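Let's practice the habit of predicting before peeking. Look at the sequence and jot down your guess about where helices and strands might fall. Then scroll down.
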Amino acid sequence: MIETEAQRTRTGMLYALATFGAWGLNPFYFKAVDQFPAIEVLAHRVVWSSLLLAGLISWGRQWPRIWGAVTARRTLATLALTSLIIGGNWMIYIHAMDSDQVLEASLGYYINPLVNILFGRVFLSERLSRTQALLRDKPLMCLRSSQRQRRLAITG
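Done guessing? Here is the structure:
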């Protein structure tokens, strides 16, 4: 069966909605396990994610590609560094949930794509298209508006 562009778009939108829905439920999960140390929650997340990923890799018969990646020193170093960054991100998020900083953590995830754009520009010399620049500017305008409203609320 050949998938049309409209079907691919619809499928992508459903995946995006499912992903955002799952992320929206994350705070409830982390509040439910806040009696456990954050490092233990993180360890479980790593172990269960690894097992799920191993199953997906096996299902897709992609072990030769994985082996190729981990035997290349530079790729392995990059994977190790990015794994540490992602683990740190998860740890901060779990700690934020444990310490009732849900709004602050949400704002961090809202700003995260903007930081990724900055990193892409600084480290990879990437340039944004006009459409991408407009999409980048919208959250920045929302943040500025939010700050302005907050300042007005404080000063009365």
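How did you do? The CA atoms of residues 52 and 58 lie 10 Å apart.
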